[in-house]
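Quick question about two entries, pasted in order.
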Amino acid sequence: MNLSCNLYVDGEFEGVIRSQKEVNIGKNGHINGDVHTKRLIVQGYIEGSLHADRVEIKANGRVKGSIEATELIIEAKGIFEGNSVVKGASPASKSLATSKDNVPQDKKL
């Protein structure tokens, strides 16, 4: 399904959704498939691969699968099972000083 408008799903859907705006999965909504959108709000259940600028999993929302997003928000009691990738994030620094080798010789214990 290709859309240029918002979509609200409060029933069952299986397949691929591509929306240039917002996809909202209502409390009774169940999606099995991939979603590509600007903003995704999950109040129901979705299983699949999600690609969005912003993903919000609300209090009773549940996501099973993978999420690729710039922003990922999970409210208390929201459930996410799977893998996530933050778009545009720089890699975490591995240069944390945790060994004695990073301490000057006269300061070693």
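Here is the second entry:
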Amino acid sequence: MKKPSMIEYIINMTDERYFKQKIKSKKKASNYERLHIRVDDQIKYCNTCKRAWVKNRKMLRKKYDYYKQNHIPSIGKEKKQCPNCKEQK
């Protein structure tokens, strides 16, 4: 089989079917990305105990997951008092 020339390659790549296929693949990817939730947006930071916490999405005994102090940076996290500190008051 003969290797296509540069002009033939460009003609094949600018074919309308090729563009439609690329657009479909981009639409599928964008639909898939909308289903995901960024974990960084879900994590909150408690100013009282200086720990990061997040609501546990799994069906286990504990309702919230707490991270060690200074384990997760507080920059960009929503500042909200954790349920543990609310109960202690």
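Reply: The mean pLDDT is 81. The CA atoms of residues 34 and 44 lie 21 Å apart. Hope that helps.
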